[in-house]
Structure formats: C-alpha cells, structure tokens
Amino acid sequence: MPSVIEQINAKYQKHQVVDVRSGDSVRVHQKIKEGAKERVQIFEGLVIRTDRKNSHTSSITVRRIASGVGVEKTYLMHSPLVLKVEVMKRSKVRRKYLTYMRERTGKSARLSGVEFDKNAVNTIEDKAAEAEEEKIHAEAEKAHDAEAAEKAKEDAKEEAKVAEVEARHEAAEKEA
C-alpha cells in the first residue's frame, strides 16, 4: 500500500512525460501569464542536465545562446506551466551533466547526432494538457473574433458618416 506522501505526489504528477536525456536539443512550450493575458512561450536549446528522472520533481536544465549570452532555464517536467517538451535532436554524450558546454562556442560546441525515432519519442497522450492548450487557443480565437467584430462595427459607422457627408455635399451642389 502506497504511503500518504506517495499518493499526494502521484496526484500532482503528469501521467506521461517525454523521455528527455542530456545532450538532447529540445523545444519547451511554457505557459506565461502577464496580467490578464496568457500566452505560450517556446524556449529551444540543449539539455545540459537532467535530475531525479522518475520523481514528481524531475527537472531539466536547458541552455541556449541568446544575443551572445548563455541563458539557462530549469523546468520541472511535471509542472502545469510546462505544456509540451519536444525533442528535436538527440546527441551522443557520456555524461549526465554537461558543464563543459558552458565554455564552448561555435564548432567546438557541436555534438554528434544519433538516429532516433522522433515521432515515437515526442508522442505522448496527456488529455489534460491537450484540453488546456485547446482552451487557450479557443480563448485567443474568441478574443480575436470579438476584436474583429468591434472593428467591423466602427468601420460601418465610419462608412455611414462618409455616405451622409457625401449626400449632404451632393445636395448642396444641386441647390447651388
């Protein structure tokens, strides 16, 4: 019988996550909330560290060079803010923590690629995450449609004013 702590941990754990290893080039889709708006930000880079693989606190550290500066972000794999992790490329490495990649740039930072089945690795079926992503897309589409309707209303008012002014102008020309 599982302990109380294990039951609580299992409750907050995602049913299935992508098998990410050190040396993988990944694309992480993260949900970001700014005020009342929500958007999905994509961070693409090299996984230089994986921690606690089978735990509910498993995490990956992703590194990329942005504007000449190395940027590292650590993501909890089971976080509800991490919507999707896609493995783009898998490389051959013999370590779990690739600290030496921090000093390397250019050609020396290249890793030799390994063949892998991209579709099999990236295919996971997490109904809750898919529903959340659909909800975000639906809300964005609904907001866009409302904005388009409002703009159409304003355009119709403008056209009515233009038609009215033209009618008055034509009436004034006929009188003169």
Note down, in words, how this protein is organized.
With 176 residues, the protein is an alpha+beta fold. The protein folds into 2 domains: 4-124, SH3 type barrels, CATH 2.30.30; 126-176. 36% of the residues lie in helices and 30% in strands. A 6-stranded antiparallel beta sheet has the order 4-3-2-1-5-6. The radius of gyration is 26 Å and the shape is elongated.
Computed over alpha carbons, the radius of gyration is 26 Å
The averaged pLDDT comes out at 86
Instruction: Please list the strands of the largest sheet in the order they lie side by side.
Output: 4-3-2-1-5-6
Number of domains: 2
Quickly give the CATH architecture of the largest domain: Roll
How many β-strand stretches? 6
Structural class of the helices, strands and pairings?
alpha+beta
By DSSP (H or I, 4+ residues per run), the number of helices equals 3
